[in-house]
């Protein structure tokens, strides 16, 4: 009985995030970091392990270097989205017209439970579940999307 409401996570490496965002760290920030390549590898490894390791990495990064610049923030957010997608059983996230499509192994019952717990009626009403896909209408204010670049 409980299994019908259980999420079935997938491996982090199996998640495709097909959103055209390529943050570019400034040369100033790169030179500020002690070892930027190693740091980015550590971020990816933390995300691959679990959300808690990624959160710890982010806290350590901020403790050592202060609040990260916008492009580093976007890079971290991409890691968080991919990690959370893996935990929710979402294998691919991609745009299609005015929709964001998320391929998932989630059952309709789990989707309904998740939808019912969402605090934002706007976000809740923008979602639909069809078979093995969750669709989200992109007509929500741009500032609500984590991947939106500030002008």
What's the gist of this structure?
InterPro entries: TRCF-like_C_D7, TRCF_C. Helix 2 runs antiparallel to helix 3 (51-65) and helix 2 packs parallel to helix 4.
Q: What is the 3D shape?
A: elongated
Strand content: 15-25%
Total individual domains: 1
Kindly report the CATH topology. Answer: Aspartate Aminotransferase, domain 1
Second-tier CATH architecture: Alpha-Beta Complex
Strand order of the largest sheet: 1-2-3-5-4
CATH class: Alpha Beta
Mean pLDDT: 90
Order of helices and strands: EHHHHEEHHEE
Portion in helices: 40-55%
Determine the CATH superfamily: Transcription-repair-coupling factor, D7 domain
Fold and architecture overview:
The protein has 151 residues and is an alpha+beta fold. It has a single domain (8-19, 26-144), classed as Alpha-Beta Complex (Aspartate Aminotransferase, domain 1). It contains 6 helices and 5 strands. It has helices at 27-32, 36-49, 51-65, 70-88, 108-116, 121-125; strands at 16-17, 90-96, 99-104, 127-130, 133-137. A 5-stranded mixed beta sheet has the order 1-2-3-5-4. β4 and β5 (133-137) form a beta hairpin. α2 (36-49) packs antiparallel against α3 and α2 (36-49) runs parallel beside α4 (70-88).
């Amino acid at each position: 009985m409980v299994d019908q409401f259980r999420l079935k996570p997938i491996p982090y490496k199996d998640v495709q995030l097909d959103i055209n965002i390529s943050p570019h760290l400034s040369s100033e920030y790169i030179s500020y970091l002690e070892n930027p390549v190693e740091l980015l590898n550590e971020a990816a490894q933390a995300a691959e392990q679990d959300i808690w390791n990624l959160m710890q990495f982010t806290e350590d990064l901020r403790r050592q270097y202060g609040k990260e610049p916008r492009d580093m923030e976007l890079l971290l957010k991409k890691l968080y989205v991919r990690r959370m997608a893996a935990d929710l059983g979402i294998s691919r996230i991609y745009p299609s017209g005015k929709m964001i499509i998320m391929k998932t192994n989630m059952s309709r019952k789990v989707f309904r439970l998740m939808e019912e717990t969402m605090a934002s009626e706007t976000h809740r009403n923008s979602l639909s579940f069809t078979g093995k896909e969750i669709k989200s209408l992109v007509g929500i204010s741009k500032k609500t999307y984590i991947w939106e670049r500030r002008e």
